[in-house]
Amino acid sequence: MPVQSLEYPKQPFSTVRRYDSRATYSLEQIHQIINTSHLVNVSFTVPDSPFPQTLPMIGQMGSFDRPSADTGDVLDLYLHGYVSSRIMNLSRKGGGDSKEPAGLPITVAASHVDGLVLSLTPNSHSYNYRSATLFGYATPVTDTAEKLWAMELITNSVVRDRWRNTRVPPNGAEMQSTSVLKVKITAGSAKIRSGPPSDEKGDAQDEALLNRVWTGVVPVHSVFGEPIPSPYNQLGQVPGYLGEYVKGTNAYAEETALEQAGKAMKPKGKTDD
């Protein structure tokens, strides 16, 4: 655990402007949002295109040099992709000028919707959400030991303990067809909204409106279903590690959504919506 709570430095491109009271630059909060997202959206510029490119990718924060580091520590972002994809090819060519770190400049975003916030008027409706954005420079991982470590990290982020419960290590063809990007993070920020609806004072004191319109929060969370065996599966039952992961993840997702909905229920008065 770090001695103190670490934060990303504020940069002009990473500072939250709108509803800045919801902003956080905490490494721990930002990394947790990224690490609990099934997909992250990775944006980068392409020399022959007038538009930025955005790819959904699987990624995970971690530290090869310090494997025991937690989400509150300085971490790198590892992204999994196909060896000849455009982002992989561009990352090999580098980016940035002499004043910037080597690698392809990318922006990574992830979001969780935790609730539908239903107020008295459409304009005051909102989401309970947790969103994070990271800015950094991506380079291919060329060291075999680090690449295998990153592949295990990413695989286990999909299903905990899955790596060692499969055929590993990957064979030569699999290693050649798979690339891993390591992103050195320059800056990051997150924005979080939680709690109940918030309405204008006039609406909140309108008895006729209050008696006609339901207000509150509908919690939102992803749910994993019961695992369905493949046609060639020969195991008689779902392995313990998989069943426990599904059950535990579902419970955590529901608990988080309910916590976000009720976090601001106790104090009275208008929220910062």
From TrEMBL:
InterPro entries tied to this protein: Pyridox_Oxase-rel (IPR024747), Split_barrel_FMN-bd (IPR012349)
Protein name, per record: Flavin-nucleotide-binding protein
Natural source organism: Apiospora kogelbergensis
The organism's taxonomic lineage, starting at the top: Eukaryota, Fungi, Dikarya, Ascomycota, Pezizomycotina
